[in-house]
Sequence to fold (207 residues):
Amino acid sequence: MSIQQFSSSLLENAVNEFAKLPGIGRKTSLRLVLHLLKQTEHDVEVFGNAMIQLRKEILYCKVCHNISDTDVCRICSNHSRDHETVCVVENIKDVMSIENTQQFKGLYHVLGGIISPMDGIGPSNLEIESLVKRVTDENVKEVIMALSTTMEGDTTNFYIFRKLAPLNIKITTIARGIAIGDELEYADEVTLGRSILNRVEFTNSFK
Fold:
């Protein structure tokens, strides 16, 4: 495959930076850069400044670890949400996926990943201890395990279940409307919404 030649090093540098984004090949990167060149200087500055401001000012909720503009995110600070139910998810994208279903009115806890020894990710690398402390200190009555139905997701589910079991709370998991091996973010909203509503006791998920 021949390497594309650019008449401008500025253009080449911009294409190379866009190509670093996940799922963006060099052809798509070039198309995006050329599109920006057609925009006004003001519009490009607004675009660039939005990215810089995002990186500099974005916060993570001190309660659930979701992205936020403030110390406590809008979901955690919303008094109309069910603060007795906490849904445990792998990442921020999973929060967005579940919120899009409009079927869940509780709170979230973002682990920041799942246990994966092959990738060097253990329990200490995740927000598991903060979940245990949250359940211990707050009036949490149900924890929903909403991790991807992969081997790593199930391993993480079981580890968290063992940590929470002594606390005498209800522990459930999303119904297996999500196919085995599927990641949560790729599930359609109807299936995901039903999986939340039809959740089952965690111990029953082994049957």
Q: What stands out?
A: Residues 73-206 form a domain with the Dna Topoisomerase Vi A Subunit; Chain: A, domain 2 fold (CATH 3.40.1360.10). The first helix runs from residue 9 to 18.
